[in-house]
Every structure is written in structure tokens, then in C-alpha cells.
Design goal:
Layout: E1 13-14, E2 17-21, E3 27-31, E4 35-36, E5 48-50, E6 54-55, E7 63-66, E8 74-84, E9 90-98, E10 102-103, H1 112-126, E11 136-145, E12 150-154, E13 159-161, E14 171-174, H2 176-184, E15 199-200, E16 205-210, E17 219-227, E18 236-241, E19 247-251, E20 260-269, E21 274-278, E22 282-284, E23 294-301, E24 315-324
Parallel strand pairs: 6-13, 15-22
Antiparallel strand pairs: 1-4, 2-3, 5-7, 7-10, 8-9, 8-11, 11-12, 11-13, 14-16, 16-19, 17-18, 17-20, 20-21, 20-22, 23-24
Length: 325
Amino acid sequence: MPSGSVALQDGSAYRTWVRATDAAGNREWFASNGFSVRTEPLEAHEVSVRVPEAVPSWRLVTASWSGFRSAVGIKSYAVSATFLGGRTPLQVGPINVGLATTLHQLSSWMPTLALRDFTTQYAAWEAGVPAGQRPSVLVTVTATALNGRTRSISSATASVIDATPLSVPLIMPISLTALNEWQARNGSAGASAWQPVASTNHASMYAFAWSALFPTGATYAAYASLGTSECAGDLVSGIPLALNASHITFTLPGIPDGTRLYAMLSLTSRAGVVSTSCSAPLLVDRQAPAAPSFVAFVSSVADDEEDATGAPSALYTSEPVIRAT
């Protein structure tokens, strides 16, 4: 056995000793804490690294993982991202994330200088992505056990990087009568049959519709809100909508007369990009029309002045004799 080395046995416990001798020849032994030799591998048979279908930016690369197992415990995880679609793959990492099992934003884990340098590097790499194509990113998670054993697992699919906003249909206030008629026809007339209205006299129900269906396949979520100013959503915020919805009716008792209501339609793409459309105002007007003012006059005609048809040819109007308000 070479001097200074010893063969340690797996599963055994050890302690190191140091002997100190001073100038006078006095000796003392000092012992370390005990430690065990554990060489079990880090298991990754059931590891799953999950990524979303799309993200809006490389900075917002997201992943979560589970399934790493170690008999001695996990020390830390590290994340690497490999970007595809350019002339050559581009990689960043590994980035130590401690014992976190979810990565919400890749850039938030990067040191300031590393973030600055990679931002420049990514911009140059992205310029080489062919026109009409979108880059994608694979995420690799490396687990390190307390005994130093490591295992790396990559996501089964890549997230597309796509910041393209959705085309949001125009949202408009419509009359409840038109909505009821449309529903009676099972929507056979289509949304194009709706016409926007400027006011309503209903006590508590306010209907809004949009000019077209949501973009097929690209829309991840849709929400409707209602407020007292444009795109505010201060009355009702974020009502989930079915992806094939064509209208919404808000029920809000107690809206004061004279209030202007604005609806907002929000669509979220599969990459998480939110796009909105805001309606024109819908005036709540429950006041009956004011009584008109009118004046009645008594008119006279000269008996001896008639035209060829026998009708009077001249009218002489007196001062008003009846006034109503």
C-alpha cells in the first residue's frame, strides 16, 4: 500500500487522527469527526424533466423536475439550456439552483456578468436562425448527491421560443335582445350578425361579444374583464372563457345610472404572451326620455285668396295661444 493512502471500504465509518508535537517534545492526538463511506449511485429511473410547449424569451425558460433518488441525499441541482435552430447549438450552464425543483426564469439564476455576456452571445446566435423559423430550447438537469455521485437528465421535448402576440378579436357591447335571438338560432347567424350598441337600460345584465373566434391552436387561455374605464377591469377581472366562446354576459346589480362600462378581452398564447382588446363604452341609461317642449299656434287664412286647387294661398299666423312644457 503506497505511503499516505488507505483503501476505504464501502459502508464503513472512519475517523482521522493527527498527532501534534511541540518544541519541547510534548505530543497530543487530535481526532476528526467520524465519516462514512457511501458509494451508492444516484438513481434516476423515474426522473421527469418537464418544460412548457413554448416560452416568449430565452430569459423565461421554465422547467420542473422530479424523480432523482439517492440513499445519502441530494446535495444540489444544476440546470443547463441548449438552444437549437441556429447554425450550431448554443448552450448556457450548468447553473446551480440549490435544492429547487422548479425553474421559473432562467435569467434570474444567472450572475450579473454572466447574464450580460450571454445576452450579447444569444443575440448574435439568434441572428443566424433562418427566416420563418423559431428557435427552441432543451433543458438538462444534473443532480449531485451528498457522496458526489451525479446524474443528468434532459427534457424529452424542446420549448419553442415565440414572442409573437395573438390577434385578438374586436370586443363590442351588444344588446341582450340580439343575444337572445342569436341563442334562439343556436348561433347559426354567426358573430358577424351582432351589431355594437352604445347604451343599455337593463338593471343588471351587460352583454359583450367579439367579432371572430379565437386563433385556433395558438390560444392557451382567454379571459374577460369589466371596468369603468378603458381596459381597467376594476369591476370584474379575469373571468376564464372557453376557447370556442363568442360572447359573455356580466351580471352586476347596482351599477349606477350614467355609468360607462368597458369590457376587456385577454388572450394568452402558448408561450405566455398576453394580448388584449378593449371595447367601446356601454352607457347605462335607465332614464325615460324627458318630456318635449312645444308651442301651439292659431292660424287664420284669408277667405278670398285661393289658388287653382281651391286651397288657401296665404296663411296668417297669430301669436301663440297655448304653451306646453
